[in-house]
Amino acid sequence: MIPISSRQxxxxxxxxxxxxxxxxxxxxxxxxxxxQATDRVATHxxxxxxxxxxxxxxxxxxxxPSQTPEGVAMNDDPEFQKVKNSLQSAGxxxxxxxxxxxxxxxxxxxxxxxxxxxxxxxxxxRPGLGVSTLDExxxxxxxxxxxxxxDQDLLIESxxxxxxxEDYLSIATNVRNAHRQLxxxxxxxxxLDALIxxxxxSFKSTGAIAGYPGITVPVGLDDKGLPKxxxxxxxxxxxxxxxxxxxxxEQALAASATLSRSGISQEG
Length: 268
Known about the structure:
With 268 residues, this protein is of the alpha/beta class. The chain contains eight helices and five strands. Helix 2 (78-89) crosses helix 8 (239-261).
């Protein structure tokens, strides 16, 4: 997995169940001399499996955006209502919130800068690929048959992006801090334990840009038959808490499915 930007992408384990995810994250967590972001992991070492409890959502307050980015009310979404009922049956209180928007222009500039620099650094460690830089990838795609199947606009834009190093560091720091302040502010303002959203929106990627933990739980299929997931987000070092909430939802959904197969209705 190659992140577009190490400042904005937060890859983690993908597994069949939340329990498997917790096992994997427990094993994977640790410091890496090549990854400065892991410097403080040792002081937050956790066995995440120990935190998985079916009652983890009891008494918790979860904030969700009152509208999707397209302006559709979340409460008008029947699929969200089903998930909402499951969360409430597990003991959670759902709180609609209005999240302020953040100008995405500086964040996009950081992404373009990071992608070129970090992809080139990655390619240096993979000799024999036939390409060693972003520019060579662009040239290869241009010269290869079927090039029109590829949209290279972002690759070219990244290649052409230029920003002074001092300005870049200032912009990148400001971007991360703005998104951290947004998340922490919402949690504090509404006395929330976590934020939730559909995974395809993920609070407009605020968590990834902030460098905060998040987890997605599969909750069913959309009207096109594609997987749909609920995304949990919180502040720094809240992985154990988010895993416990995800586990509680997973168990609530499984219980609801069992009741449905048995022909027993469940009030939300």
